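Review this chain:
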Amino acid sequence: MRAVRDAEHRVLHHDPHGYCAHPHLVRCGGELLVVLNWSPRRAFVLHPPQEPLVHNLLTRSADEGASWSAPVVVPDYGWSGVECAGLTDLGGGRLMLNQWRFRWHPLPTARRHPNRAALAFPSDLAAGLLDSSELDSGGAVAADPERLMPWARGLGTTYVHLSPDGGRTWPEGDLPDVQPFAGGYGMRGGVVLGDGTVLLPLCDAPRYASVFVLRSDDGGHTWSAPVTAAAVDDRLFEEPAPLLLPSGRVLLLLRENRSRSLWSTRSDDGGLSWSPPEPTGIGGYPAHLCPLPDGRVLCTYAVRHGPRAILAVTSRDEGRSWDAAAPLVVRGDLPDKDLGYPCTLALSGGWMLSVYYARDETGTTCIQATGWTLPG
């Protein structure tokens, strides 16, 4: 591993009463925007698939990340129980927010639900935590899940919200039809092709096994039928990260949960067809892709097992190969595996900004940032 240069670490947003995690960083107009998850701080960690009180918050910076506004709920305070959200800069100050929102039920209501078999009850959620390699909360809730998690989770709905003013207001929205998939969850937004088509990659929530894309030719108001981008027997693909390359090719990096690594697929026809998914050799997840001024592609990701670090690798051939054997260490002193989801943007003067979540010195999980430069 190689260390980045001139690394400066700081806290972007800290809430002593909240669990803040899973950021996505974009540029819209002259501002940097971060959407993140907020939920009540508990004695044990719950992520969106188990927590009904998750909200998506938006914070902005007008000075290249030196300072950030107080976060606000998006699209408004009526939205809870969501997964990690994605942002897409549509140009001209227009911004798109995509959300997957679960249907949550109080436990007494869930017990009377006409389709109980479709719900995940506290014992089901606790079993998922016990099997998780990412969270250590299973032991804390398994003894009495109905007292500690008195709710049941149903399926949900994919939403797309549109803002004309850089995310300050959200007057428009749509519910894309993702059938035959159960749902559509994506936490890295989409891309805008050269002809203005918006391409939005999503994974099949809550199965988290295949990835598909939606296309919109009217700025996100209406959407095409889904096109499968990655579905392979015995592989579990989710959390796609897209990038439009200078050649017009669209590159997708995918989290693959059986191998705990990143895979890739690409499209040369605007998302209408996709290459067979292939392993990248990058041992971590999830991905975020950033074009560099010299033509390379930067992939930022996290490692929770082993070094517990925020890492980055580069590709000189549009993602066909990566320098995965010698990753850059953006942040390597993180205290435990409650971390990750880094995003990186290239700023002026060769400066890079990476945003991610991790615990600070008080033990509070919060949104952190590292400014750095690439080694020579």
User: Anything to note?
Assistant: Residues 2-373 form a domain with the Neuraminidase fold (CATH 2.120.10.10). The mean pLDDT is 96. The chain has one domain: 2-373. The CA atoms of residues 196 and 218 lie 8 Å apart.
